[in-house]
Every structure is written in structure tokens, then in C-alpha cells.
Design brief:
The complex is a heterodimer of chains A (about 525) and B (about 130).
Chain A (H helix, E strand, L loop, with lengths): L1 H13 L28 H13 L13 E2 L17 E2 L3 E6 L24 E6 H8 L7 H6 L6 E8 L3 H4 L5 E12 L6 H36 L4 E6 L4 E5 L9 E4 L4 E10 L6 E6 L5 E3 L4 E7 L7 E4 L2 E4 L1 H11 L5 H6 L3 H13 L2 H18 L3 E10 L6 E12 L4 E13 L6 E13 L13 E11 L5 E13 L2 E10 L9 E11 H8 L1
Parallel strand pairs in A: 1-2
Antiparallel strand pairs in A: 3-4, 3-23, 4-5, 5-6, 6-16, 7-15, 8-14, 9-10, 9-13, 10-11, 10-12, 13-14, 16-17, 17-18, 18-19, 19-20, 20-21, 21-22, 22-23
Chain B lengths: L3 E6 L4 E4 L6 E8 L5 E6 L3 E5 L10 E6 L10 E8 L5 E10 L2 E12 L5 E10 L1
Parallel strand pairs in B: 2-10
Antiparallel strand pairs in B: 1-9, 3-6, 3-8, 4-5, 4-7, 7-10, 8-9
The chains are: A alpha+beta (about 525), B mainly beta (about 130).
């Protein structure tokens, strides 16, 4: 049994180590990272920021590291820094440890603690069945295909470890073995539910509409900037990149021929991109790659061309531009680079800024819909109800008591920042030196994020948790506990739970008890990602 | 918006492609999962690709070619990538210039990390000759 336990612990802790690394840049970044508004570095970020500024400042729900994920030891462990269990465990692997053995009483009432808890710290590891499957398959737990194909395995998680024991409560000071399993019966936060896949599909449609809008808006904003800062960028009747088509194909032309467009204007050139191989008839022309768009053209059909190796080709001018393409391209390549964009934006006159603002306002709908739907759909998923059942045990050798718990757990997101959890359990204490105890337990908890997460695999948010618990066991008076906990993120993957707990009476002892506890939770997957 | 954008090879804004010499562009999106959401669009032609269009979606890697066919040719086309981090926190976007012999150069390579409600756009202008 001991060998098997050691194997399982080694397996759980070893999981992330054998996960293949995600694709990562091989070379050092050529430029520093940017982090979006208001520190835009690219013209695309500038355009997006303009759209967001137009939409106004709405609160964006960020709850990437939801308060619904249990990383700490199960509540059946009396040294756990959590009074209440949560429906879902980590998707991957986490470890929890009690840094400091139970502290002396800090009860302000002066009643003092009668607890003689001096046991060593608690340490448990929790892993989802999914994480084990990923490890066995030597694949990343975030691999999209693997994630899609192993939905059910994310419903099951296991916990194993040790917990300190005290003579008064447990009839031994030898640490117990903690083990448990949890099954997520209902998980409305699962991405692969039909309703959530529908939400993702809606986001995809919204994003496509936004991307097209941005693709069309960005060149127009660039043109306004160019015209505002370079008088020669603005011309009357220039050939447009979409406004020249073949009218009469002529003959004898070759691919790459440059043709000058006649008509009312001058200086405009097109390139022959495809010809009929039989007779050299022109089939596709495009604006000349050197940006010679000319000036003073007007919309016309069958406009003569000169140059090239053939003769007789004419074009239709279907649309015109007000920007000199050559000047515009030079401007784009020099003044809109990451290095120069900020100074270029800074140099814009007020009327150009107003023009940009007006342009953005007229194109705001796809940006607005995407943002609204992102926030709404995220709220719907992150607040989804979860319900699970679990079983856990603390086994002690010799004359020590064994504790067992069968539990019902319910989670619901009251808001994007506040999660509500309810536990109801049947508890059984197997006393080898006395009468057994049986009874029920009810606990509830509110977990609130005080800060927003700052990155996909970054630190967890600062989290405040209030919990209450009632225990009604045979042969014992009812025990009521209150718990306040501050979960402090240290670095990505490491959290420090600081807990104050008050109980009207400690187990087996008819005196009030209050304690301060410190713990350490380690999310191995998050650490693995942070180190990549 | 809290997207962290880290250029490995910066976006040059304007990308020349000698299509008459057989050059074309190769696009790659590497996604960490679990469900990537992205769109690739042109200012002239609208949506060209989106994640859900690819057989096998969701995947770790999405690849496509552009300017390989005559129907792709559009002078000074603005090609825009839209990324949503709703169900995928990390992307790497790579654009390479190819000819018949293989890779000519890496035009740009950028990694992005974002939160679920974040969106990021990345665009450049193609000049064909």
C-alpha cells in the first residue's frame, strides 16, 4: 500500500514535468512587449484603442482565474486553510501545504486555546483525471484536440497527501493519510457544452465582422494621417488600388509589363499581372507596385494605355483615390512603424484627430457588438452553476481515529468576481478506542476577487473568502466555525493563504478556539507555463 | 485591453511579394488551446479564413497560403488578423515569404497573451509585383 501511495504521489507531482512544451519563440524578442491601450505600439492597437475609447469605459469582466477552482487541501483535513470545498478542482495539478503548524490561539476573549495541536504541516496534491491522461499520453493539457477529446476526464479529480494529527482530537500524533475523489456532476462552465460552444461560435462571427471592419478602417485612418502630415500625400483624382480593370485586352503583352494610363490624368501606371499565353492579351492589371497613382484622373471606360510589349490594351477607371500611393507607402513604412507611431500620432493636428474620431464612430458597430458579446458570454460561462459529489478520508495508524466524509458541493457565480459555494456532507469518525461519531455538516462560502488577473498564466488575483460551517455529530455538542481568509498571490503558481478561524468549540474540547493559519498552494501547471 | 504582444520578428507594415516570380505568403498560427478563435480578413475581399473553417478545428497549428492563386492578387491589400482570447490565451502568428524553392524569409513573427475578453488585431499591406 505504501509503495502504491508513493507511486501515485510521484505520478501526480511528476505530471507537468513530462508535458511537452508549447511552441515558444526560438529567438529573443526583437522589440519589447506591448500591452495594448493606452500604450499602443502598432497602428492596429491604435485603431482598436480609438474604437474602445469611442465605446467608453465599460467594466470588462476579467476573472480568468476563477475563484471556483479548489487548489487547497480538502476541508476534511483539520489543518486545511479552507473551510469549504469547491465543486471543481484545478483542471490540471496543484499542491497545497500548511507552512506553519497550527498557531497558538489568538482569541481576543482571553479564553485561550485549549488546543494541543502541535502536529507537523499538512501537504496534499490534487490532480484531475484529465491531467493524468495528458501525462500518460505525453501531451500538453492545453492541446486543443486533446482538450476536446477528453471532456469527461475533467469531471474527475483525486487528492492524496498527509495531514497532521493531535492527541486530543485524533487520539494520535502520527500524521494521517489523506485521500479523496471528486466527481463533477454538473459543470455549466465546461467549454464543450452545446450552449457554450454556441457562445464561442457567436464570438467567432463577431470577431470576423470586427476584423473586416478593422481591415477597412485601418488604411483609411492611415490615409488621414498621411494627408494631415504630408501635403503631397493628398492628390486629386489618383488611380485607386481597386479602381482599374481591363477593358480591351489588346495583344502581345507580357507579365510584368508596366502600362501608363492616359485619359484625363497623368502619371498613373498599372502592371500586367496575367496574360493569355496564346496571344498576350491582358487579363489582370493592378496598380503599379511603385505606387505611381498619378493625378487628375476621372472615372471613365476604355481608357488608352501606353508602354509594355504589346498594343491595344485599354482600361476602365471605376474608382479614384485622393491619396498618392507612392507617398502613402513611404509614410506607412517609416512613420507608422512601432518605433515612430507614437510621435506620428502626437504630431497629428486636431482636425485630423476629429476626422479619425468621426471615421471610427461610423464604423463602431462591429467593435461594439464584439465587446458586448465577449463580456456577456464570458459572464454567462464563468457564472455557470457547478455541482459535484466527493468522498474523502483521513486514515491514521495505531489507535488514531479515522475520519470519512461524503459530500455534496454546489458552486454558483453571483457575479464575475464573487463565487458562492455550499457544502452538505455526512461525516463519520471511526474511533478505535471509543464510540464512533456520525453526523452532518453544512458549510457555505463566498469567494471574491479583489484584483483582476493580469495574464493568461500570470498570478492569481488577490482573493478574500468568508466561510461558515456547522457540524452536528453524535456524542458531541454542535460545533460552529467562522473563517476569513485572504489568498495572496506571490508569483505565478504560488499563493499564500492567510486564514483566521474561530470555532465555538474545538473538536472534543468544550472551549472556544481561534487560530491563524498560513498555507502555501502550488499550481504546477501555472509554474510550468510561467517558466516557458 | 491587456494583451501582451511580443514581436520576435517585427511587423514591417508593408510586405513586397514578387508574385510574377512565383513568390507567395505562408501564414501560421500556433495556438495553445483549448479553443482558438481568430479571423483573417482583407480590406477588399472581406473574411478570407476563420478558425472554424479549418478541417480538424480546434488544432495546435493553423496554416494557409496567400497569393498562390491569381484570384488572390490584389495590389496594396490590407491583410488583417483578428485574435480573440476568449477560449485561448496564447497565440503565435508567423508570416513567411515563400517561393518554389521554399522559405525566402520570415516576414513577421509575434506572440500574444491575453485574457478572455481581450481582442488583438495585426495587419500589414501587401505590395505585389
Amino acid at each position: 500500500m505504501t509503495t502504491f501511495r508513493a507511486f501515485v504521489i510521484a505520478l501526480l507531482i511528476g505530471c507537468p514535468a513530462i508535458l511537452p512544451a508549447q511552441a515558444a519563440p526560438a529567438a529573443a524578442p526583437a522589440a519589447g512587449p506591448s500591452a495594448g491601450c493606452p500604450n499602443f505600439k502598432t497602428i492596429d492597437e491604435f485603431v482598436y484603442c480609438q474604437a474602445m475609447a469611442t465605446l467608453g469605459k465599460q467594466q470588462v469582466g476579467q476573472n480568468g482565474k476563477g475563484s471556483d477552482r479548489q487548489l487547497q487541501s480538502p476541508s476534511t483535513d483539520s489543518r486545511a486553510t479552507s473551510l469549504v470545498d469547491q465543486s471543481s478542482a484545478t483542471d490540471f495539478v496543484s499542491a497545497a501545504a500548511s507552512l506553519i503548524a497550527v498557531a497558538p490561539s489568538l482569541s481576543p476573549s482571553g479564553s485561550g486555546s485549549t488546543s494541543s495541536q502541535t502536529g507537523s504541516g499538512t501537504g496534499t496534491t490534487t490532480a484531475s483525471f484529465y491531467a493524468l491522461m495528458a501525462a500518460f499520453n505525453k501531451t500538453s493539457p492545453t492541446d486543443p484536440t486533446f482538450y476536446k477529446d477528453h471532456i469527461f476526464s475533467r469531471r474527475i479529480s483525486f487528492t492524496i497527501g498527509t495531514a497532521a494529527s493531535t492527541q486530543a482530537a485524533d487520539n494520535t500524533t502520527t500524521p494521517s493519510t489523506v485521500y479523496g475523489a471528486k466527481f463533477l456532476v454538473i459543470n455549466r462552465r465546461e467549454l464543450y457544452r452545446d450552449d457554450n460552444l454556441g457562445r464561442i461560435s457567436d464570438i467567432q462571427k463577431d470577431l470576423s465582422n470586427e476584423t473586416v471592419a478593422a481591415a477597412q478602417l485601418t488604411p483609411k485612418i492611415k490615409e488621414i494621417m498621411c494627408a494631415a502630415l504630408h501635403s503631397d500625400c493628398l492628390v486629386n483624382g489618383a488611380l485607386s488600388k481597386v479602381g482599374v480593370t481591363v477593358s480591351s485586352p489588346g495583344s502581345g503583352y507580357k507579365r510584368g509589363d508596366i502600362l501608363e494610363v492616359r485619359g484625363t490624368g497623368s502619371g498613373g501606371k498599372v502592371e500586367v499581372f496575367d496574360v493569355d499565353d496564346k496571344n498576350g492579351a491582358v487579363t489582370i492589371v493592378q496598380l503599379s507596385p511603385d505606387g505611381s497613382s498619378g493625378s487628375k484622373y476621372s472615372v471613365a471606360t476604355n481608357v488608352e494605355t501606353t508602354g509594355g510589349s504589346g498594343k491595344g490594351a485599354t482600361v476602365n477607371i471605376t474608382a479614384l483615390s485622393s491619396v498618392d500611393a507612392k507617398v502613402f507607402m513611404t509614410f506607412d513604412q517609416t512613420q507608422l512603424t512601432e518605433a515612430n507611431l507614437a510621435s506620428t500620432v502626437h504630431a497629428l493636428p486636431d482636425n485630423a484627430k476629429k476626422q479619425i474620431q468621426s471615421l471610427v464612430e461610423n464604423a463602431i458597430q462591429p467593435f461594439s457588438k464584439l465587446r458586448t458579446d465577449l463580456n456577456n458570454e464570458y459572464d454567462q460561462i464563468s457564472k455557470g452553476m457547478q455541482m459535484s459529489i466527493s468522498a474523502a478520508g483521513n486514515n491514521r495508524t495505531g489507535q488514531g481515529n479515522n475520519n470519512y466524509r461524503a459530500e455534496f458541493i454546489f458552486d454558483y457565480g453571483l457575479s464575475t468576481r464573487i463565487n458562492w459555494t455550499v457544502n452538505g456532507s455526512f461525516d463519520y469518525t471511526d474511533r478505535k478506542m471509543g464510540l464512533d461519531s456520525r453526523g452532518g455538516r453544512f458549510a457555505t462560502s463566498f469567494q471574491g476577487n479583489l484584483t483582476s488577473p493580469t495574464g493568461g498564466w500570470s498570478k492569481s488575483p488577490l482573493r478574500l473568502i468568508f466561510s461558515g460551517e456547522g457540524d452536528w455529530l453524535s456524542l458531541q455538542k454542535p460545533q460552529y466555525s467562522f473563517d476569513a481568509q485572504l489568498n495572496v498571490p506571490i508569483t505565478p503558481g504560488f499563493d499564500l493563504p492567510i486564514e483566521y478561524r474561530y470555532a465555538n468549540r474545538a473538536a472534543q474540547i468544550n472551549q472556544a478556539d481561534s487560530q491563524v493559519r498560513f498555507g502555501l498552494t502550488v499550481d504546477l501547471s501555472r509554474i510550468t507555463q510561467a517558466l516557458k | 485591453m491587456a494583451v501582451t504582444r511580443t514581436p520576435v520578428t517585427p511587423n514591417p507594415n508593408v510586405v513586397p511579394v514578387k508574385v510574377t516570380a512565383g513568390e507567395f505568403l505562408h501564414f501560421v498560427i500556433d495556438a495553445a488551446g483549448p479553443i482558438p478563435i481568430f479571423s483573417f480578413a482583407s480590406d477588399v475581399k472581406g473574411v478570407l479564413f476563420q478558425a472554424a473553417d479549418f478541417p480538424g478545428h480546434p488544432m495546435v497549428r493553423y496554416e494557409w497560403l496567400h497569393l498562390k492563386n491569381l484570384s488572390d492578387f490584389q495590389q496594396m491589400e490590407n491583410l488583417e488578423l483578428g485574435l480573440s482570447f476568449f477560449s485561448n490565451a496564447n497565440y503565435t502568428y508567423t508570416v513567411e515569404l515563400f517561393n518554389a524553392a521554399g522559405v525566402v524569409s520570415t516576414v513577421m513573427k509575434i506572440t500574444y497573451t491575453g485574457e478572455p475578453t481581450d481582442v488583438e488585431n495585426e495587419s500589414f499591406t501587401v505590395v505585389i509585383s
